[in-house]
Amino acid sequence: MGLATLLTVTGCAADAELDTMNPQGPLAQEIDNLLQPVLILAYVIFAMVLGVTLVIWWKFRDNHEDEEFPTQIHGNTKLELLWTAVPTIILAVLAVFTLIVLASLNDREDNAISIQVDGETVTWEPEVVVVGQQWWWEFRYYLHGLDGVDLSDARNLPPADIVTSSQMIIPIGQEIELSATSRDVIHSFWIPALNGKRDVAPGRVHPWKLEADNPGVYFGQCTEFCGLSHSRMQMQVVAMTPEDFQVWITEQLANPAEPTDEAALRGQAVFESQCTRCHVVNSINGETSTGADLVSNAAPNLTHFMSRTTYAGGIFNLYEPDGSLDRTQLEAWLRNAPAEKPAYAEGRRGMPAMGLSEDEIDDLVAYLTTLGNSPRLSIIEATEVE
């Protein structure tokens, strides 16, 4: 009992990023509303069974005063009916409430919102295509809807209006419908503060949804073992006010400014010669790329790289806490990615060591910093990973 209590307590942590008991949206609240009474009932039953067991053990213990064999009792119809019927009724009641919650979580509601796309008002049913691959998550926004968008081949998806990775941006107070799939193996998408898990398998599209009540950052983790860096396949949902979400859309739809600095121009040349075989920057190879030289046929789109706060599957901070670039970590990643995050680069799974010179790394960093606008310091602080 003491050991069990100790193990339970050591599994608790204040402000844990993946706390399953801290719902921040109506969907997660539904799960929590079901979980709480189930846990209470489980604790009561556990205490009753343990208590009865201890009473029986104490009352009928052998005091070793004689060698007489205790009287044996075989069968008790009333008790057997009781401990069969009561659990059956309890489980049946729980099953009914569980099915009600499951049906609610899988329902979809029409909640189209108006957004501005290239100066025009567009009615958008909030929906995001979520794609898992070893070992990062991609989020694709089709702002004119998914009708007619063929998602059957995740390795060759139609061009999207916005493509980002590791961080999904959503407006608050809206049900965000997800169409989740995989490009290689089975993954599992999970943002515990906003909803439960949803497995994603290659060749299939799995519906799911999220909703956040308030602006904030909600952490997630792939929960299906998917290979070498499974534990380093993280993601975040950044929930914004509708006004901030519109600003984000507008920025993402625009191409980043052309570099003018000499080092950034040299870095762009390095990017075009070394990085475009996998990565995409819309203004450079957005229309010509046919996919990445990887098993998944995809690498993170870097068009607005600086608008994110993490990279490499969400495990490294792009910024220091004061908002400045974490150059040391970024350079280390460009110098030898497999040394920073285990991958199977020789098997075309994960970013390889590119063999760049130190000058090329400096120039490439200068170029990457021109790709997109930095987020607010409050977002940088809230999305910081350890």
Question: Any descriptors?
Answer:
alpha+beta, elongated, single chain, 10 helices, 18% strand, three-stranded mixed beta sheet, 14 strands, 386 residues
Explain what the structure shows:
This protein is an alpha+beta fold and 386 residues long. Strand 3 and strand 4 form a beta hairpin. Helix 2 packs antiparallel against helix 3 and helix 5 packs across helix 9. The longest helix has 34 residues. It starts with a helix and ends with a helix.
Instruction: Choose one word for the global shape.
Output: elongated
> What are the low-pLDDT stretches, counting only 5+ consecutive residues below 50?
none
- Work out the helix count: 10
Query: Helical content, roughly?
Result: 25-40%
Cross-sheet strand order for the largest sheet: 5-4-3-7-10
Radius of gyration: 26 Å
Specify the structural class.
Answer: alpha+beta
For the terminal residues, how far apart are their CA atoms?
33 Å
**Beta-strand share of residues:** 15-25%
**Average residue-wise pLDDT:** 93
Instruction: Write down the secondary-structure element order.
Output: HHHEEEEEEEEEEEEHHHEEHHHH
Can you describe this structure in just a few lines?
The protein has ten helices and 14 strands. It has 386 residues and is α+β, with helices and mostly antiparallel strands.
Write the topology of this structure.
Layout: H1 2-10, H2 26-59, H3 77-106, E1 113-117, E2 120-124, E3 127-133, E4 136-141, E5 162-165, E6 167-171, E7 176-182, E8 187-190, E9 197-200, E10 206-210, E11 216-221, E12 234-240, H4 242-253, H5 262-275, H6 282-285, E13 310-311, E14 316-317, H7 327-335, H8 337-340, H9 358-368, H10 377-382
Parallel strand pairs: 3-7, 6-12
Antiparallel strand pairs: 1-2, 3-4, 4-5, 7-10, 8-9, 11-12, 13-14
Helix pairs in contact: 2-3, 5-9, 7-9
